[in-house]
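Retry 2 of 3 after timeout on previous attempt. Resubmitting structure tokens to design endpoint.
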């Protein structure tokens, strides 16, 4: 007598009223708007494509060199280079709409007014969610990042929520004393979800030339080096607020993704790994499904926050 064939586990996740076919998305700034990767992977297999940052006007970004490798990751100081909202709406969005995947647009701005205007325009577009990058420098306040001040983070959240017809994700910076304080500020201001973490500020110096490896001197550290920090912060925020979390930071394979979900993430974002393997996100999806099968778990949502204390 043969045993019954196992039923495929449920991989779908719903957050803020949006249905994702699986919990794996791309990390903003590592995937463009999917254009460069479409020849290597089937974008429709992804839970969502999270676009590069979109600003009101085109941003040139920082001068080169803007990338430096580190022993367990990379530093980048791209400076959120992007062609602006007009080009995104006329070119990138029509391209993404050809695929059966959710579209999350990362929004950046130098002022509250810029965040609001971009968010307002995207509210009329056929996208699924907005991810607000509050690591941008507030030029009106001397360059301080919105994401390091709870009051400023709340101000941006409230302003965007007031005009947005799409669910709003606030992307949190790890470069703070207490990330739960930032999470609570965004939750109280009306955010629908949180994504964390953004990159950690770092620096690299070439000992032979005695020059900075990045023209900007500092850059954002990503990759395996920051994964334990990201897991810790996701766990802390999961236990501090009630909002769904997108876990980001050094997810190189399915074990990293599952670890992030056990800490409290509902979705996970693959970033730096895609530079090494363009199909990294698809491999993570397959690995999560294999894990669920082998552990007799019928629903991926049962992983979220399931770490044994």
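Retry 2 succeeded. Sequence:
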């Amino acid at each position: 007598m043969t045993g019954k064939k196992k039923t495929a586990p449920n991989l779908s996740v719903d957050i803020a009223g949006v249905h994702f076919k699986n919990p794996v998305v791309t990390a903003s700034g590592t995937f463009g708007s999917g254009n460069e990767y479409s020849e290597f992977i089937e974008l429709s297999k992804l839970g969502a494509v999270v676009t590069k940052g979109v600003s009101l006007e085109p941003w040139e970004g920082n001068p080169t060199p803007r990338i430096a490798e580190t022993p367990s990751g990379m530093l980048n100081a791209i400076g959120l280079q992007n062609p602006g909202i007009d080009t995104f709406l006329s070119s990138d969005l029509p391209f993404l709409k050809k695929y059966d995947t959710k579209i999350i647009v990362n929004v950046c701005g130098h002022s509250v007014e810029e965040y609001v205007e971009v968010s307002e325009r995207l509210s009329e577009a056929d996208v699924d969610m907005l991810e607000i990058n509050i690591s941008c420098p507030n030029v009106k306040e001397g360059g301080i990042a919105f994401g390091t001040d709870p009051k400023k983070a709340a101000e941006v959240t409230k302003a965007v929520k007031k005009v947005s017809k799409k669910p709003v994700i606030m992307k949190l910076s790890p470069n703070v004393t207490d990330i739960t304080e930032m999470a609570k500020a965004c939750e109280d201001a009306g955010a629908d979800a949180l994504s964390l973490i953004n990159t950690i500020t770092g620096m690299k110096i070439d000992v032979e030339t005695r020059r900075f490896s990045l023209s900007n001197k500092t850059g954002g550290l990503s990759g395996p080096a920051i994964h334990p920090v990201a897991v810790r912060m996701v766990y802390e925020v999961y236990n501090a607020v009630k909002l769904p979390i997108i876990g980001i930071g050094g997810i190189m394979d399915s074990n990293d993704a599952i670890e992030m979900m056990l800490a409290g993430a509902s979705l996970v974002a693959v970033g730096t790994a895609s530079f090494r393997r363009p199909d990294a996100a698809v491999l993570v999806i397959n690995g999560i499904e294999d894990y669920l099968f082998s552990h007799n778990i019928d629903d991926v949502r049962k992983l979220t926050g399931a770490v044994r204390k």
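Attempt log closed. The chain has one domain: 13-61+76-201+221-303.
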